[in-house]
Specification:
Elements: H1 12-23, H2 33-38, H3 63-70, H4 76-91
Length: 92
């Protein structure tokens, strides 16, 4: 038994009926070419580009410290890096 699904394309008549129904819906009018060119993604996809100067490490952190940073939501690693950098400024 094959797990591949068969894609069934509409006939020309079915496609014309689907297109006519879509075009007759005043709440779903197609965008013009000008409108399509003006569309921009809401935000870039994927992970933001890094600085290229960071090194991945594995270290053990007390659970309460880690949870305190994670409680702030996304960006906890950046905040933790900032806290370490701030500590360096006062302890060098």
């Amino acid at each position: 038994m094959s797990n591949k699904r068969k894609i069934v394309m509409p006939t020309a008549e079915e496609d014309a009926a689907i297109t006519a129904a879509a075009l007759s819906d005043p709440d779903a009018l197609p965008l013009t070419d000008t409108q399509l060119r003006q569309l921009k993604p809401l935000r870039p996809r994927g992970r933001p580009a890094g600085s290229g100067t960071k090194i991945q490490v594995t270290m053990r952190i007390d659970e309460d410290v880690l949870e305190a940073f994670k409680t702030g939501g996304d960006g906890w690693q950046t905040r933790m890096n900032g806290a370490l950098r701030e500590w360096l400024q006062t302890h060098r």
